[in-house]
Every structure is written in C-alpha cells, then in structure tokens.
Amino acid sequence: MTTTDNPNQGTAFDVSKYQVTKEPESMTVVIEETGESFEVKLRQISWAKRNQLISQFMSWDGDGNTSFNADGYVRACLKEMLVETPWGKTTETFLISIDARLGTALEKLVPNAFGIEEVDPSAVKKGS
Fold this sequence. Notes:
By secondary structure, the protein is of the alpha+beta class. It has a domain at 18-60 and 67-112: 2-Layer Sandwich (rbstp2171). It is built from four helices and seven strands. It has a three-stranded antiparallel β-sheet with strand order 3-4-7. Strands 1-2 form a two-stranded antiparallel ribbon.
C-alpha cells in the first residue's frame, strides 16, 4: 500500500515519493583545487542505514560522554554509496590512499550525520 488517506488534508499521502530508489544516480564530482571533474554513480543511502552507521561509529564512556568517529562514518558511507567510479570498487585501501583534495570532494557526497538546522525563533510556537 503506497497511499493512505489523511483526514487533515483530504488527499492521499503518496509514501513512494519518500522511498529510496534502487537505481544509482549519476553525479559529477569536482575537485575544487584543480577544477578537474569526473562522473560517479551513487546508490542512495536509506534513513535506516544512515542511522545504523551513525550508531556504529558513536561510542559512550563510563561517564555518559559520547564520541563520534566521523572518519569511519564517512568512509563507510562512501563504500556503501559509490557503485561506479573511475577507480573501480571503493575500498578501505583506496580511501586511505587518496589525498585531501579528492577526499574532500568525495566527502561532499556523504549525508550529514547530525543535520544541524537553524531554527527561526519567530516560527516556534510558544505554549500557553
């Protein structure tokens, strides 16, 4: 079932608009420092997979403090997402061999682990 009736809006909700597609998406990656560009094919990462990776790279100490291994998260996402590249399969060996110029360009493909969204204070409803 892809739609449900929403009594508040009077129209059907189409959940298929929010589902991850199985077809890889072509993207152009540009290396800012050199201006060089190349094509890659990316598989969308699902909300659940993103959360799974965040959990995998987050840890807590005995005092309840958290730390996040952003490096591991980015590498895991790139290995999961990149399906066609000029260098072939994206492996750990490949990722630790590239310089900051290519790494920074690829990092832009990775979904933010912790989306920081600015809140407009005038848009916040105050309780009565």
